[in-house]
UniProtKB/TrEMBL annotation:
Gene3D superfamilies membership: 3.30.300.20
Domain of life: Bacteria
UniProt xrefs under InterPro entries: KH_dom-like_a/b, OsmC/Ohr_fam, OsmC/Ohrsf
Pfam families for this protein: OsmC
Organism, scientific name: Candidatus Promineifilum breve
Name of the protein in its database record: OsmC family protein
Length: 138
């Protein structure tokens, strides 16, 4: 895997990985300028949620769960002092559908976090990660 990160101006960068999809990154923009990209720490948090989301949705579909929607809410706590690393994450999986089996959701999350999501496996060595889920009946 490779990527090219290019300074555009101030602390605004574009990142282009092998996929060719452009990702905008930015530290705090200068006074009076609109933010144009996510911070690297926001992207890290999004990567964790996105990685496990893809696993869980795929597993629930294989288990033939009648999903009509899916979301993850993620919260990350950071250390007060530099380097301001993440110390804790909490992910809430929100599964919407008809007759969703709670044990299927629990197992899908377990498989993702223990076996499939490489981002989770990496980050759990550096931060505490908690999960919970909510089922919304449609």
């Amino acid at each position: 895997m490779d990527a090219l990160i290019t300074l555009q101006e101030d602390l605004f960068f574009t990142a282009v990985p092998d996929s060719g999809v452009v990702v905008n990154m930015e530290s705090t923009p200068p006074e009076g300028k609109e933010r144009r990209g996510a911070s690297p720490m926001e992207l890290l948090m999004i990567s964790l949620a996105g990685c496990t989301a893809m696993d869980v949705v795929s597993i629930l579909r294989k288990k033939r769960q009648n999903m009509t929607g899916f979301e993850i809410r993620i919260h990350g706590d950071r250390a007060a002092d530099h380097p301001r690393r993440f110390t804790d994450f909490e992910l809430e999986y929100i599964v919407k559908g008809v007759g969703i089996d709670p044990s299927a959701v629990e197992r899908a999350i377990q498989l993702s976090t223990e076996s499939y999501c490489s981002v989770h496996v990496m980050l759990e060595k550096a931060a505490h990660i908690r999960t919970r889920f909510t089922i919304v009946e449609d």
